[in-house]
Amino acid sequence: MIQRPPAAQGAPAPRAAGGPPGPGGRRRHPLVIARPWLLLAPALAVLAVLLLWPLVRVVLFSLQDYGLREIVSGEANWIGLANYGEVFADPTLYTVVLPNTVGFAVLAVAGTVALGTGVAVLMASLGAFWRTVVGSAIMIAWAMPAVTGTYVWIWIFDADRGIVNSTLQALGLQDEPVNWFTNRWTFYAIVLLNVIHHGFPFVAITILAGLLGVPKEMLEAAEVDGAGPWRRFFSIIVPSLRQVFAVVIILSTIWDFKVFAQVYLMPGGSGTNREALNLGVWSYVESFGQNRYGFGSAIAVLLTLVLLAITVVYVRTLLKEEEL
Amino acid sequence: MTRRTRLAALKAVLVAALLAFTLFPAFWMLSSAFDARAGAAGQGLLPQEFTLANFEYVLTEGGFDVFLRNSAIVALVTVLASAVLALLASVAVARFRFRFRTAMLLMILIVQMVPLEALVIPLFVQVRDLQLLNTLLGLVIVYVALSLPFGIWMLRGFVAAVPKELEEAAYLDGASWGRMFRSVLLPLVMPGLVATSVFSFITAWNEFIFAMTLLGGATENYTVAIGLKQFFGEHSNDWGSIMAASTIITIPVMVFFVLVQRKLASGLVAGAVKG
């Protein structure tokens, strides 16, 4: 699953210009010490200027009243934690944004992992031909860009001519076309469908790789001992794939907390329907829609902190598995 | 029915349902793109009046040819720049043990988790200060930075997998470090370089939030991901064109994806970036 570096990786640097580093005592040639840093310099410069400094800056912005005037003049207007105070005092946070963000992430992760696991188990039980067919089909769902995938789902649920509405009407299940995007629940149900459809293939492929690594003898022995399929799944497969499940769940959580295009592009999703806001979209529309970059930054910092907390768990999981 | 045939029937039903769910959006996109009646009342599952007119329209009057060119430029420059930077950095990380090495790897890993929504505000200000708003260069700079951490993380594994003995043999033969890099390391990590390049291509090709923010004022510089919105009308949407343009965007991604999906899957677990 994860590319395991060969054992040789742990060995010391190649012995060249400066001679052998030698255990203790002998000093290394300065060029030998500098070499990795020379190789790293260009990449580090880019990362520092375009990822790390902006990350610091978004925190700095969040402590300022940073609007159109400040963006033009470049002057800082420090207001302390007032933006955060406003975020936490805003009822939108508790009634709309947090439920939409957290509730959605929970359902999306559960749905993605459940479907992905089910598909992996199904694929493991198929012959080579049908496994390839299913594998290719889910690859198509995975490869579809988020933007075009989202437009297709919008078109499927379109209020006037969408196939869902026309099918439901043809079946007599509904008299009038329904605008699925105005209601908060159906809006997020469509986002959920979109995100699960796009996200489950990764889970399925990853877990399938793990499943194929579970020793067949163990499963056969359990079957001989009278363990049913559920028992075999929960007592053998789940424990031996614990690490795979952990990584897949955490990654899905990180992705599903920050869905943006899938919400923003939907009718009303770009802030006109405030019931549909999640943390990411709220931050964006406050910044670029209202020119309240400081307030938007405070929301963005909150989102980042949540993801950072999940990331720490992820990194610890990963560190257990391989040496960096 | 015996237990065995029941199980086979159940599997067949599950596979059929799965294929329908998985393929329907792509199928519907294609069907609408090739249908002269797309978006009209009574459009069928398959195109009833097969046509290429939707494609012709988006590529000529729709301006999508320009967006395709912009996206191609942005993606190619991003791929080249990030491949060079990532390769150098990954050699450093995979081949040398040095102070702060682990700390740096962790930083690279963590920085990828930062939501784009948080980076877009300061980077908008930064690109604006550089007077690169509405230019392709401004977008390229950002995309190089976005694809770099994953590139380093993934190439690191490929560099580490090159047997050290080969390098040492080259040294014994008197090759310089640079020579060894070019004639031993580079050919061997080429598959990894291709895989990471495909990944940064897909990132640059699909990216939405930065393209929307940094190119907002210049329609002529739109990339494909945001160029689609040209076909949304105030009262009705031109679904035939939107689906034709979506098909054109999706094809290169699908082709590349199939080429590298195995490597992408293992890299994804390590790198945590979704295409």
Question: Which helices and strands, and how do they pair?
Answer:
The complex is a heterodimer of chains A (324) and B (275).
Chain A lengths: L29 H33 L5 H6 L8 H8 L1 H35 L2 H16 L2 H11 L6 H8 L13 H30 L2 H9 L4 H12 L1 H16 L3 H4 L14 H11 L3 H29 L3
Chain B lengths: L2 H31 L19 H7 L4 H32 L5 H11 L4 H14 L6 H26 L2 H9 L4 H30 L2 H6 L9 H4 L11 H33 L4
Helix pairs in contact in B: 1-11, 2-11, 3-6, 3-8, 4-6, 6-8, 6-11, 7-8, 8-11
Explain this structure:
The complex is a heterodimer of chains A (324) and B (275). Chain A is mainly alpha-helical and 324 residues long. Helices cover 70% and strands 0% of the residues of chain A. Chain A is globular and about 75 Å long. Chain B is mainly α. Chain B has a single domain (72-269), classed as Orthogonal Bundle (MetI-like fold), CATH 1.10.3720. In chain B, 74% of the residues lie in helices and 0% in strands. Chain B has helices at residues 3-33, 53-59, 64-95, 101-111, 116-129, 136-161, 164-172, 177-206, 209-214, 224-227, 239-271. In chain B, helix 6 crosses helix 8 (177-206), helix 7 runs antiparallel to helix 8 (177-206) and helix 8 (177-206) crosses helix 11. The longest helix of chain B is centred in the last third of the chain and has 33 residues, at 239-271. The model of chain B is unreliable at 271-275 (pLDDT under 50). Classes of the chains: A mainly alpha (324), B mainly alpha (275).
